[in-house]
Amino acid sequence: MLWALALVQDAAAAEKSILVFGDSLSAAYGIAQSRGWVALLAEKLKQERPDYSVANASISGETSAGGLARIDAALARHRPAVVIVELGANDGLRGLPLGQMKANLGTIIERARKSGARVLLVGMKLPPNYGQDYTRGFESAFAEVGKRYKVALLPFLLEGFAEKPEYFQPDRIHPNEQAQPLILERVWQALRPLLR
Questions:
Q1: DSSP states of 96-159 as a string?
Q2: DSSP code of 21?
Q3: Which has more confidence, 47 or 5?
Q4: Measured between alpha carbons, how far is residue 10 from residues 7, 15, 42, 76, 147 in Å?
Q5: Which candidate, 54, 93, 101, 167, has a CA 20 to 30 Å from the CA of 124?
Q6: Distance between terminal CA atoms of the chain?
Q7: What's the rounded Cα separation, in Å, for the pair 14 and 170?
Q8: Residues 117-175 pLDDT 10s
Q9: Residue 115 CA to chain centroid, in angstroms?
Q10: If residue 82 lies in a helix (H) or strand (E), which one and from where to where?
């Protein structure tokens, strides 16, 4: 009996966690949680990397400042091996200062690394109606942060379907259920090299 208990404890200790730390794009806004890309990632890991589990600490409407306020508690709770940072879209949609967004993302990355986690930074783009300078600055912010902190970067979460209305909910901001497998594929390609 003790031997069996030890095996269970060893298996639990061996499981590594991936923390998804994002906003509505990762929180399955407007669709069933079980159909969101994070839930699909959990299913994929069961098949391909059963030594990893997923914890989703994403909150709809979250900004980089909100994420910064929560990161320490999330790291302490989940003790992840990998953190997927998917924040910044709401900063952009609200026209918040890009310098502050970059600083917030940088601090989140630093804290995740200090906890021992590897980091995947996920970038976004804005619609053109936010003005050329802000839109360009927003898009390049993720590459700048990724380069500065030397972390893996997925440049654009919605690459390949952002211009296709059939993949979005009526608000044209949030991807629908049909888009979730496409998001998963983008994330998986960037995440897989970090799963050691």
A1: --HHHHHHHHHHHHHHHHHTT-EEEEE-----GGG-HHHHHHHHHHHHHHHHHHT-EEES-TTT
A2: E
A3: 47
A4: 5, 9, 21, 21, 37
A5: 54
A6: 32
A7: 43
A8: 999 999 999 988 899 999 999 999 999 999 999 999 999 999 999 999 999 999 999 99
A9: 17
A10: strand 82-86
- Residue 132 tokens read as 């050329």
Residues annotated catalytic, as ranges:
24, 171, 174
- Tens of pLDDT, residue by residue over 51-94, are 999 999 999 999 999 999 999 999 999 999 999 999 999 999 99
Helix axes 37-48, 180-191, angle to 10 degrees: 50
Q: What are phi and psi of 120, to 5 degrees?
A: -115, 120
CATH fold, domain 18-194, is Rossmann fold (3.40.50)
Q: 139: how many CB neighbours lie within 10 A of its CB? A: 16
Task: Enter the tokens of residue 3.
Answer: 């031997």
Return the residue matching tokens 């979460």.
Answer: 157
Phi, psi of 21 (to 5 degrees): -120, 90
DSSP state of 179: G
pLDDT, position 4: 44
Provide the residue ranges of all domains of the chain, joining segments of one domain with +: 18-194
